[in-house]
C-alpha cells in the first residue's frame, strides 16, 4: 500500500503546497482523498491520472478540499476514462455534485458536441453519501470512514485504509478527538493536519485575534498533534494541511518530537510512502522508513 501526498496546503495560496489531496494505491486500486487546488496536475506527476481512479473520497465540504472536483471529472474524460467517477462524501455531497454538474452543463454539452470523443461515460458520476462507520472495499484495499470533530462543520470524516496487514489513517480536518485517536491506535502511519498557531499573527485587514482563535479551534494545533499521536501509539506520524503553508519546518519538527517518540515526517507535495516496503520517496531520494 502506497500513499502519495498530492497537496499539503490549505486555502492560503502557496507555490510549494497545493490544495489538500492524498492518493492511496495498491496493485489493484487507486483512491483519491479530497480534490484540492492543483490535484489533477499532482495526479499526473504521481503517475496516476484521474482516468485510473477507482474512487474519490471527500473528508468534508470545505472549498479547499473539493475546489478542483469538476476539473478532475473533465480532465479524466480527456484522458480517456471509460467508467463513471465514483464519489463518496458526507451528507450534502450529492446536492453539491448535482449542482456542480448542472452549473457546467451548457459548457459540457458544447464540449461533447464539438470534440466528438468516442464516449461520454467518463463524464458520468455516481455519488454515495457516507456516515460514521462506512466501509467499502476497492480491490485489496479496505477503506473505513469515521466522524471527526471539525465543528461547526457538521459532517466531517477521517479515513482509515488497510491492505496487506498495514494500516494508514488520514485525520481529515479535525481538532483532536477520541474517534481519531481510536483509529490511529497502532497504525503504521498517521497522517495528521497541523495548525501552527505561533506563525499566525494578527494582521490588520487580514485576520483578527478572533479569526486566529476560531480557525485554530477546529484544527489540530502543533502543540497537540504529537501528544495525540503518542497517546494513540501510532508507529509513525506525517504532518500535512499546513496552516500556514510557509512555516519554520525545523521549529515545527522540534515541537512535535518533544511530545511524540516515533518518527515525525514534515510532509511535502509528492512525497510517497510505501507502507509495504517501509520506504519514503521524495524527489530522487528514497529512504527506509523506521518504525
**Major sheet characteristics:** 9 strands, mixed
Give the fraction of residues assigned to helices. Answer: 10-25%
Strand content bin: 25-35%
Strand order of the largest sheet: 6-5-4-3-2-1-14-15-16
CATH fold-level label: Metallo-beta-lactamase, Chain A
Radius of gyration: 19 Å
Q: Write the element-wise H/E pattern from the N-terminal end onward.
A: EEEHEHEHHEEEEEHEHHEHEEEE
Description:
The protein is built from eight helices and 16 strands. It has 291 residues and is of the alpha/beta class. The chain has a single domain, classed as Ribonuclease Z/Hydroxyacylglutathione hydrolase-like (Metallo-beta-lactamase, Chain A, 4-Layer Sandwich), CATH 3.60.15.10. The strands form two sheets. A nine-stranded mixed β-sheet has the order 6-5-4-3-2-1-14-15-16. The protein has a seven-stranded mixed β-sheet with strand order 7-8-9-10-11-12-13, with helices on one face. Strand 4, helix 2 and strand 5 form a beta-alpha-beta unit. Helix 5 crosses helix 7. It starts with a strand and ends with a strand.
